[in-house]
């Protein structure tokens, strides 16, 4: 018989697992990893005869995505265009960024799987006599290691041609040059830290759902058990 068990700690672990997975996925797909040096709005075509604003802007560059400003030919206005600069994996700007993409993708796939499974832990607490919380916690720890590897390798690619176009000739491995780090990089770091917190907290979720109070509720014949 399926017993729906909801505790404060298990729900918190489930919510954190979902948040971490989405945060890492959004960061990975974002172009805001590097914020390039300021460029004047008219630098693309050198034409400001229509009086278009010359306020500088900062192009951004991600692992495989970029955002820049382009002119609209009819009105000579500027707008931001975002899209992948690499049409396939081999066109990613650096071998280090290719490795980063692989490690981050593997970590995110694991996190998304755990996030999906965590929703069902209210009803299923064990698989093959093993706690589903402990299994998911182990997977989150492995995902965290993949994420760390990806984040360590990412700065090694700052010396590639694509990065120097955005950050200037002084950019090199682990040196930003004229660039600054965007919110996506910090989000990926924060998500990695939370991943390990989730891995540790999964043990607390397992303890909460197998406590004596839960067992007493089961023995009383209750199918829906909700404990704070």
**Quaternary status:** single chain
What gap, in angstroms, lies between the N and C termini? 23 Å
What is the number of domains? 1
**CATH architecture label name:** Up-down Bundle
CATH class: Mainly Alpha
Gyration radius from CA atoms, angstroms: 23 Å
CATH topology: Butyryl-CoA Dehydrogenase, subunit A, domain 3
Total strand segments: 9
Helices, strands, pairings?
Elements lengths: L3 E4 H22 L4 E2 L24 E2 L3 E8 L4 E8 L10 H24 L7 E2 L2 E2 H22 L7 H7 L12 E2 L1 H27 L2 H8 L4 E4 L1
Parallel strand pairs: 1-9
Antiparallel strand pairs: 2-3, 2-8, 3-4, 4-5, 6-7
Helix pairs in contact: 1-2, 1-5, 2-3, 3-5
Family: Belongs to the LHFP family.
Subcellular location: Membrane
Pfam families: L_HMGIC_fpl
Written description of the protein model:
The protein is an alpha+beta fold and 228 residues long. It has one domain (4-32, 94-226): Butyryl-CoA Dehydrogenase, subunit A, domain 3 (Up-down Bundle). The chain is 48% helix and 15% strand. It is built from six helices and nine strands. It has helices at residues 8-29, 95-118, 132-153, 161-167, 183-209, 212-219; strands at residues 4-7, 34-35, 60-61, 65-72, 77-84, 126-127, 130-131, 180-181, 224-227. The strands form three sheets. The protein has a five-stranded antiparallel beta sheet. Strands 1-9 form a two-stranded parallel sheet. Helix 1 (8-29) packs antiparallel against helix 2, helix 1 (8-29) packs antiparallel against helix 5 (183-209) and helix 2 runs antiparallel to helix 3 (132-153). The protein is elongated. Residues 42-53 and 73-77 have low confidence and may be disordered.
